Amino acid sequence: MKYDFSGWATRNDLTCSDGRIIKKDAFKHNDGETVPLVWNHQHNTPDNVLGHAVLENREDGVYAYCEFNDSESGLTAKKLVEHGDVRSLSIFANQLKESGKNVLHGIIREVSLVLAGANPGAFIESVIAHGADSETGLIIGYDENIMLYHSSDKEDDDKDDKKKDASEEKKEEKEDGDDKETIQDVFDSMSEKQQKAVYAMLAQTAEKAGDESKKDGEKEKEDEKKGGNNIMKHNVFDRDDQQQGSANVICHSDQVGIVELAKSSQVGSFQTALKIYAEENNLQHDAVSGGFVQTGSGNVTELFPEYKDVRPGAPELITNDQGWISVVMSKVHKSPISRIRTSQVDIRNIDSLRAKGYEKGKQKKQAGNFKLVRRTTDPQTVYVKNALHRDDIVDITDFDYVQYLYGIDRMMLNEELATAIMLGDGRDDGDEDKIAPEHIRPIWLDDELYTIHVDLDVAAAKAELQGSNTGANFGENYVLAEAMINTVLYAREKYKGTGTPDYFCTPHMLNVMLLARDLNGRRIYSSKAELASALNVGDIITAEQFEGKTRTTEDNKTKKLLGIIANLNDYSLGATKGGEVTHFTQFDIDFNQEKSLLETRCS
Length: 603
Known about the structure:
By secondary structure, this protein is of the alpha+beta class. The protein folds into 4 domains: about 5-160 and about 175-240, no CATH class; about 255-305, no CATH class; about 325-350 and about 370-440 and about 575-600, Major capsid protein gp5 (Major capsid protein gp5 fold); about 460-570, hypothetical protein PF0899 fold. It is built from 14 helices and 24 strands. It has helices at about 70-85, 155-175, 185-190, 190-225, 240-245, 255-265, 270-280, 325-330, 390-395, 400-420, 460-465, 475-490, 505-515, 530-535, and strands spanning about 5-10, 20, 35-40, 50-55, 60-70, 90-100, 100-115, 125-130, 140, 250, 285, 290-295, 335, 340-345, 370-375, 380-390, 500-505, 540, 550, 560, 565, 570-575, 580-590, 595-600. The strands form 7 sheets. Strands 1, 2, 3, 4, 5, 6, 7, 8, 9 and 10 form a 10-stranded mixed β-sheet that branches. A 3-stranded antiparallel β-sheet has the order 16-24-23. The protein has a 3-stranded mixed β-sheet with strand order 18-17-21. The longest helix is centred in the middle third of the chain and has 34 residues, at about 190-225. It is elongated, with a radius of gyration of 46 Å. The N and C termini lie far apart (about 100 Å).
């Protein structure tokens, strides 16, 4: 097998600078595979690909036989290795399976030449220069037992380490004197015959390794034909291949500095340390591989991306049904008078008031008495109070925070008024926040003189439609719809209001009537307008706030609300000058708050 140099890509059971420990056979399935040889784990340009490396899984780790390509960068790197300027290897692996700090399984994607690796056992062991002067070439040893110092984050640290190594070497040479010999000295001391023997032994070893790699490759091809998938042909620019498992990746180069920087009191967080380190070292996060690669942009925003708003600006409001509220507030009559007194005399069904026939000689009778009903209605203040911290007003720049909260307050005030007009506010008697029914009189709870309360008799509707066998032909929706229409139309006979009223009900009640079917399965009412015509109302307005509302009658019976039919123009919402909806704001300098008060005084 032809190769330019070989060495340990990674060694087992050694603590790397990132704290990981690669265990035996962690990359066993990479045995015999060919991966790209790149410079310092850089994947941004094709010039960074220096050649390829054939991996061999051994007892002590993964060994790499590397060959440079004929590109300009490949030839430059070859000279650096031959001259001894670079002698460290590093791997890039992903799809890791870890147990604590131990790496049990992974896929090596590429082997890199680095100035100093994170695994202290990864180094170039031998270089073979294929020259014309020798059949087997020249073998140069590179301190195969040396323990390399780890890469530093700053040039000053590199200089200090080099000075330290140099001083230690001088100290050792001074202590040992002329007795210390290097591998090169031992090799030079051999005779020409002995040197040729060494050449032959190394060439035979390399040839044997190549034959084993070839056999393994043929075996893997056979497994692939049988349905296996043991061969990995990796392209360093094939991002789809790297994307799998990219969330768990190790890149054995320069990681200690980031952790140390994060531990310092000046930084305090890993994210800040990462940004500082990236700016100082021109690093950019690779979103595909999950590691860092050296670039010229110095941009790491892809590692911690900002969230993007689906709808920029003010947050979307999730509210109860607001459609019916605008209908109530727009249709109710507005009056400039808030203190009113009404007087009514109910002379319906009083027989004693009837005119009488006279017989000569008989005494004439006086008409019977009648009752005067008089009541007064006074206004009550209804308000919504809120406060905004000035810090929030200043910091929130995406939308007008003050106007946004005012819109919410106005919405809540309108809903409270509309609910009080139609149903009452629902708070218990004695609650200090209750809107009293003597001030804003709810239609549903009003006196029988002003409101017609009618019960819906479903059983009677069933009997009227088809006797006791109604369920055999008619569904519940049909029966309920017919009962509702009959009840409403009969009740309208006593209605004394003006114009055409509207029908307010729950969405479920509307759906029940719209889903009514005849005996052939055809829907009775094809649209809401058609149903409104059958009910003899102007419009049908749904209000989900009507759901589940009940009231108790004077004889302690519980009535469930099914709907309200009213012409709101017959009802007056009174507010004198100054009692209309008014917005007050005031700044509290003690608590740094902008206070808001939205109130009205009405009846």
